[in-house]
Amino acid sequence: MYTYQHEHRVRYRECDPMGVVYHTHYLDYFEAARTEALRDLGVRYRDLERNGIIMPVVSATVDYKQSAEYDDVVIVEAQFPEMPEVRVPIDYVVRRAETDTLLATGHTDLCFMNAERRRPVRIPEPVREAFLPHLPASS
Amino acid sequence: MYTYQHEHRVRYRECDPMGVVYHTHYLDYFEAARTEALRDLGVRYRDLERNGIIMPVVSATVDYKQSAEYDDVVIVEAQFPEMPEVRVPIDYVVRRAETDTLLATGHTDLCFMNAERRRPVRIPEPVREAFLPHLPASS
Amino acid sequence: MYTYQHEHRVRYRECDPMGVVYHTHYLDYFEAARTEALRDLGVRYRDLERNGIIMPVVSATVDYKQSAEYDDVVIVEAQFPEMPEVRVPIDYVVRRAETDTLLATGHTDLCFMNAERRRPVRIPEPVREAFLPHLPASS
Amino acid sequence: MYTYQHEHRVRYRECDPMGVVYHTHYLDYFEAARTEALRDLGVRYRDLERNGIIMPVVSATVDYKQSAEYDDVVIVEAQFPEMPEVRVPIDYVVRRAETDTLLATGHTDLCFMNAERRRPVRIPEPVREAFLPHLPASS
To answer: Which of A36, B60, C119, C131 has a Cα at 20 to 30 A from B48?
Structure first.
């Protein structure tokens, strides 16, 4: 499994009248975490797009455990359990940094797609190679 | 089952560089649809909150089928399959109005909660009565 | 002056821990109001873009008078004081529908721009003609 | 003048179909920059709020010069030109880190307000003291 931890400071605009992070923003946290996870491997999503590959989200799930509050620092861990092929499954665990409280877990499936034809494609070879030291190739 | 259809015009701010609605906004569409579904029953969420009941989202899932584009009108159908007790399960179906294309399906579980003590509570009686003509009481 | 009134129901996601609309969302209200104002004239921004014309925002100002609250219906009036040339000045007045309270005023300058070359251009002739019954042509 | 530079990585959700940051998000960048500027002085906005002081935005202006693109790192400089009294004027300058290109300038006026009575109040003494080494007291 390849994992990466992304840190985020909760902003006022993300908090609702209950005084806690509005539930939709966890999906934004997931996006930032997986983008930085890829960057840490040497893969810049911006470059993929410029080369005609996009990675749309196919499905997303979030389970909310405890609320993050305004100005909390949250740690968003992105976990890549296996070598992606066409589909890219990613798990997420969100914790409050100060107390290590589990706030939420989630999952997204993305896929590699040809931007022009909007058709799923296999993982680009440079991305596969970036994952290879961390994830056994699927057989 | 109680169902309600909410209409939404896709705004520029919701669209991403792929030219389509960014995936997180479907959760916002769900929020608007369930709020209007409750209003249609005579239940105003704002009044619930003023009476000390909040309805946090416990879990959320979205499956993305096709992309909504800028300026599309989308129909978001909220489906309440059963009389809520403590937990409020809701299904969603999102279609493009013009073509009736299925864009996404989703599910959220909310729960009734005492705002002050942050403890789950049973469905308030007036809300149960509002649902009763549409949903058989659970046995 | 050409004016158009756009109605918007304040959503939970737009409200902050003060229990009122977070200030940035007024710019979103402005976007919706001017888009609908143009549509009412027969000009669909989506079609402009497909014809290679974009309308970026050059400057924006908001003055906040009173707070909009969750579930309020707000009326956002977009006012086009003069025939646009390259630049499109628009004023906005936001009121709470129920009480007619003035909530905010604002102004944006947009401009017509060639999407490909990212260069300002004069108002496309069909847009000028759509405005003409409402706005005296500048001399 | 007290100045503080806040760094932000542009996220996908912030970018629009023109492929650049949607204009409303600069107000979010301003919020993050002023919050961190205050933290750097030892003032945590969260603590102010817990002590019954809120800081609503009274007016906001943004002038857009060049577009920020997806994945750009932007530097948002918050400038406090004078010791705040009741009103807190702040200027902002946004630059792309990599090229030092000027992207936008802006201004917000906030005010100190009693959260319960929603009345403007003078700057709390601990906040004034935090600013004092950086800003001459107004006469």
So the answer is: B60
